[in-house]
Write a structure and sequence with these properties.
By secondary structure, this protein is α/β, with parallel strands linked by helices. The protein contains 10 helices and 12 strands. Helix 1 runs parallel beside helix 2, helix 2 runs parallel beside helix 3 and helix 4 packs antiparallel against helix 5. The two termini are about 30 Å apart.
Length: about 300
């Protein structure tokens, strides 16, 4: 009954897929990019930039000249940043943002021409799908901080994140139909986030929706004035980072796992999880701290 999600095996050559049960412990060395505490790989040529402090990893799409298009290079860089030391207990939450007035314009259409060929096209969409699934299956919460336009796969990225905070000037669209390329893969994340009829109107017409409309339909968690965006997003991130990582990881995995189940099965699975949660060191500490009227001291 367990839902099965596909994760890319980090460092694997070729187009391999790794089956991973949501909630199951990550395999030893999963997504490891070096010893604990190692600096994230950076270079001027990378289309993303990353920094981590106090448990919060900030990943920035950093190619504004190309509207932060999710080219294959951008997807691989984003994937590397998401998966870097994913099992490290020092990581509590990830925030994805972007430089420039466009959060992301979606796929780089120059990579989708006839000259690139079928195999390259397949690699682009498979890599993109892997990234979106890795966000959902990641052991820590992932927040999208959106300031500007998010279209097609860019909208898909927002929909795939656990939490999404946007400025009131942001907008969202799946306009592929306008150029004869239906946004089928963005529709996966969009259709699991907003009501079906809202998703289909966006997909069929390609017309954008405002941040307030996106909020009312459930694509966003919160909308704030542009000048308050970073402050509010970091407030949420810091709050999450103050919580127990093992508890958050267990809760996130179980939340997604139960969504696809019938009501009885969902309650059965979540009841088991509650019992397992109480058996965790931090579960015991939290109950004890509440009874003793003190702040809990988490293991991680």
């Amino acid at each position: 009954m367990a839902a099965v999600a596909c994760l890319r095996a980090c460092g694997a050559k070729g187009r391999s897929w790794l089956l991973h049960r949501p909630g199951a412990p990550l395999a030893a060395g999963f997504c490891s990019r070096g010893p604990a505490g190692a600096r994230l790989p950076e270079s001027e040529s990378r289309p993303t930039s990353t920094r981590q402090r106090d448990g919060i990893r900030n990943i920035v799409l950093s190619n504004p000249r190309k509207r932060n298009a999710l080219s294959l290079a951008m997807l691989r860089s984003l994937q590397s940043d998401i998966l870097h030391e994913a099992e490290s207990q020092d990581l509590k939450v990830i925030v994805i943002s972007a430089k420039g007035p466009v959060f992301s314009s979606g796929h780089d259409l120059k990579e989708l021409t006839d000259e690139q060929g079928h195999n390259h096209h397949a690699e682009v969409f498979q890599t993109c799908s892997e990234v979106m699934m890795q966000i959902q299956n990641h052991p820590v919460p992932v927040i999208a901080m959106v300031n500007g336009l998010a279209t097609a796969a860019g909208c898909q990225l927002v929909a795939s994140c656990d939490i999404a905070v946007a400025s009131d000037t942001s907008s969202f669209a799946t306009p592929g139909v306008n150029i004869g390329l239906f946004c089928s893969t963005p529709g996966v994340a969009l259709g699991r986030t907003v009501p079906r009829k809202v998703a289909l109107e966006m997909l069929f017409t390609g017309e954008p929706i405002s941040a307030q409309e996106a909020l009312s339909h459930g694509l966003l968690s919160k909308v704030v004035p542009e000048e308050q965006l970073e402050e509010e997003t970091m407030r949420i991130a810091k709050k999450i980072a103050s919580m127990s990582r093992p508890v958050l990881s267990l809760g996130k995995a179980t939340f997604y796992k139960q969504l696809s189940q019938d009501l009885r099965t969902a309650y059965y699975l979540t009841s088991q999880t509650m019992v397992n949660n109480l058996a965790l060191q931090d579960g015991k500490e939290g109950i004890k701290a509440f009874i003793q009227k003190r702040k809990p001291v988490w293991s991680h």
